[in-house]
Design brief:
This protein is mainly alpha-helical. 42% of the residues lie in helices and 0% in strands. It is built from 2 helices and no strands. Helix 1 packs across helix 2. It is globular. It starts with 28 loop residues before the first helix and ends in a 9-residue tail after the last helix.
């Protein structure tokens, strides 16, 4: 398994450090969409497909459907 660390601007800066692994972390939806697309492209998706899948995943998160989102 390959792990990546991305510098994602967060809405609540107190989250996502080593001491708060279980804390909810709010991330800008546009930046998350971009990041998800980049990850999917790195995994081998075509650019257009990566953008579409990233859009669907982020929209699911925004609607509160965590089981079908990025999270």
């Amino acid at each position: 398994i390959q792990c990546f660390h991305f510098d994602v601007p967060r809405v609540n800066e107190s989250c996502c450090d080593d001491t708060t692994a279980e804390e909810e972390c709010l991330v800008d939806a546009g930046r998350l969409r971009q990041l998800a697309g980049q990850v999917l492209e790195a995994a081998g998706f075509r650019h257009e497909d990566a953008e579409l899948v990233a859009e669907v995943l982020v929209e699911a998160d925004l609607r509160g459907v965590d089981s079908h989102g990025v999270t």
